[in-house]
Specification:
Helix content is 49%, strand content 17%. By secondary structure, the protein is of the alpha+beta class. The protein has a single domain, classed as Muramoyl-pentapeptide Carboxypeptidase, domain 2 (2-Layer Sandwich), CATH 3.30.1380. It is globular and about 70 Å long.
Length: 155
């Protein structure tokens, strides 16, 4: 029987990281309990400034369309139900249910009290040094349903 070789790369597989969110939530809970609320925000800011530096650069160069493209991909990968509306000065994202929160709840993981900071603080950090700002308008801790808004800062 002839030998058959199959060549695959990681990019050939659908990217899923749902259990990552559970591990992140445990880490955030630990930081909050041992070092306080601001330690969670500091950690997330440091992470976002580093990991999302290319996105921050794209936001500064291309505007809100760069964020819209990013979030369309992220939420499509996560199979989330979202409404994204974009204009030159504002990007709104309405999430029906956060896939991370729902996964954690379905599998009995603890959802850290400050888990919403993974959206609020990270989005704010992504916008640092750009003409744009971010705010989390609404967040339901039970489902992760929420509204994110990015907008052009006033001069």
């Amino acid at each position: 029987m002839p030998k058959e070789v199959i060549h695959r790369t990681a990019s050939d597989n659908k990217y899923l990281h749902k259990d990552f969110h559970g591990a992140l939530s445990v880490g955030l809970d630990y930081l909050q309990r041992h070092y306080g609320d601001e330690s969670v925000r500091d950690y997330l800011r440091q992470f976002a400034r580093s990991f999302y530096a290319p996105l921050t650069d794209a936001l500064g160069r291309r505007g809100l369309v760069a964020l819209a493209e990013h979030f369309e991909k992220v939420y499509a990968d996560e199979s989330a139900q979202v409404r994204i509306s974009l204009s030159d000065d504002e990007l709104r994202i309405d999430v029906e249910a956060c896939p991370a929160v729902m996964h954690m709840r379905e599998h009995g993981y603890t959802v850290a009290p400050l888990f919403h900071e993974t959206t609020r603080t990270v989005n704010e950090a992504i916008c640092e040094g750009t003409p744009f700002a971010a705010e989390l308008l609404d967040f339901d801790p039970a489902t992760g349903r929420g509204t994110q808004r990015f907008f052009r800062r006033k001069p």
